Amino acid sequence: MDHIYEVLRAFRDDYEGSFSVLEFGVADGYAFTKKLHAARYLKMESRVMFHGFDTFEGLPDIDQGADGALIEGDDWVAGTYKGRYDELQSYCGAKYGNFELHKGLFEDTLTKDFLATLEEYRPALIWIDCDLYSSTISVFKRLIPWIPTGTVIYFDDIYYNFSSRFTGEMRAVHEINRGDFGSGIELVPDRYLSWNSNRLYRFINLDAKFQHKLKETRRDDLRLRGDDSPFP
Ligand SMILES: C[S@@+](CC[C@H](N)C(=O)[O-])C[C@H]1O[C@@H](n2cnc3c(N)ncnc32)[C@H](O)[C@@H]1O
Fold first, then answer.
1. Is the CB of 30 under 6 A from ligand 1?
2. H or E element at residue 203
3. What's the CA gap between 33 and 50, in Å, rounded?
4. Which of 10, 18, 190, 223 has the highest local Cβ count within 10 Å?
5. Separation of 13 CA from ligand 1 center, angstroms?
6. What span, in angstroms and rounded, lies between the C-alpha atoms of 69 and 75?
7. Which ligand 1 atom is at minimum distance from the Cα of 54?
8. Is 57 in the pocket of ligand 1 (CB under 6 A)?
9. Is 83's C-beta closer than 6 angstroms to any atom of ligand 1?
10. Rounded CA gap, 23 and 170, in Å?
11. CB distance 105 to ligand 1 below 6 Å
12. 189 CB less than 6 Å from ligand 1?
């Protein structure tokens, strides 16, 4: 969870403009509310808009091929993680103004109008916590053209089936890196931001619609060595 602070701080300090944070799989809002709090703590509420996507009805039907357990008894179960939309909406609404909850299937709520807002609010962090391959890939099918290079993608359930590329969120990572969405698109693990996990990736798109913009203060006109000696 503390990854959120590292990621938000990096975007606040290094990049210009406004950002969005998108969470897919919100349920009762444990992680969503932590994110809202983090932006307030980091004094960047006015620069970040949070979007939470969920049916709030729990996991959809499980495709055993793409999401079946490789260990007996470790299966996902349809209907689990049912959320609490009304309570979450009123809790967040009383405290924060920089959020929106999108109730419904990802394939229905990731509309053209919503996607167009991402050019102004460039995605800093995309939080995937929808467990299933089918749900994860349905997000990327719509979102990929709108993700600039450098956006951080967090996969909560990357360890399902030992991170095998045959199932779950890792199957989606594998398909992206195999080139299914284009040969100039990949997900690169970010070891620094991941700390002791392999949950965080940087998105790369050689033909992205738009880019994150480095702040003037972070640019070097010439990348010169310091005045230290290059010799041992
Ligand atoms: C593990 S829960 C999310 C947990 C949450 N991030 C938290 O902090 O507690 C997974 C959620 O994904 C949602 N979900 C999975 N597939 C979905 C889909 N295709 N469309 C909308 N919601 C989906 C389920 O409703 C469920 O609430």
1. yes
2. strand 200-205
3. 10
4. 190
5. 31
6. 5
7. 22
8. yes
9. yes
10. 17
11. yes
12. no
Nearest CA to ligand 1 atom 5: 26
- The minimum-distance atom of ligand 1 relative to the CA of 83 is 27
Of 11-15, 156-160, 217-221, the least confident: 217-221
Pick the CATH number of 3-215 from 3.30.830.10, 3.40.50.150, 3.40.50.1950, 3.30.390.30: 3.40.50.150
pLDDT at 44 over 80: yes
Do the beta carbons of residue 67 and residue 168 sit within 8 Å?
yes
pLDDT above 80 for 225: no
The amino acid at 200: L
C-alpha to C-alpha distance for 125 and 8, rounded to whole angstroms: 8
Q: Ligand 1, residues 81, 159, 160: which to mutate, most atoms within 8 A of Cβ?
A: 81
Query: Exposed e or buried b for every residue in 133-162, given b needs 16+ CB within 10 A?
Result: bbbbbbbbebbeebbbbbbbbbbbbbebbe
pLDDT in tens, 88-97: 999 999 999 9
Q: Which sequence spans correspond to the domains of the chain? A: 3-215
Q: Is the dihedral of CA 138, 165, 188, 184 positive or negative?
A: negative
Instruction: Say if ligand 1 is within 6 A of residue 39 CB.
Output: no
Task: Identify the residue whose C-alpha is closest to ligand 1 atom 6.
Answer: 26
